[in-house]
Amino acid sequence: MAAEESSGIIGNAIAFLAIAGGSILTAFAVIKSLINSSSLSLAKRVVDFVAANTTAVSSRGNWSNADVDPIDQIDEQLQNLMTATGGFITPTVVLGLSAWRTLRNHPKTKARCNGVQVGGISLGQLSGMFFIPATPVVGMLSYNTAKPGNTVSKSQVLGDICYIQASVPSPTVYDPSPFKCFTTGVGGVEAVRTYRDEPFSDVHNVAWNEVFKSTSTSSIIRLTIT
Q: What pLDDT is attached to residue 45?
């Protein structure tokens, strides 16, 4: 997911010994490498946690039906979200890559374009189609579903999912973001300790922590796209 999509679920869960060019990296470089390499793992854990703690709206998301208007379905959920949360925060519409492709190519979506439209709509045009201001975001990360050593098999992290949510890019303990990750350090890293493991190794021990919590169930709505 993009940073806007995570809405406060920030943390890391991988600690490792980093070696480059035959020499062990400094503690700072270890932390930087840890955060960069674990970002995809974090995104997958975030998506799995959110999916496990939300329920898709029934009888919605059937965008493969040419008679169903996806924009109208999103507008309906935007209205429900604003009613539930008070309407003080500009909502975000998070689309998996497959969901975005289905929405973009839907005949009802194309019919909303004025004049001659060459190609599909852009995210900017999609934003203008919603009946209230809302920010569309597309999640494009993929991951390898196979275990190490097996043939690579890639899949989308978000896929056929659409989330309509009220959240802020820089969350605090008080804002109504639907999910948050609580940590004791920036990026989930609490401390880095280095010690010598004789006779050949310097070990960089990275203490990390993260706890995902559902903090506002009324601030998110899920559509599973079929």
A: 84
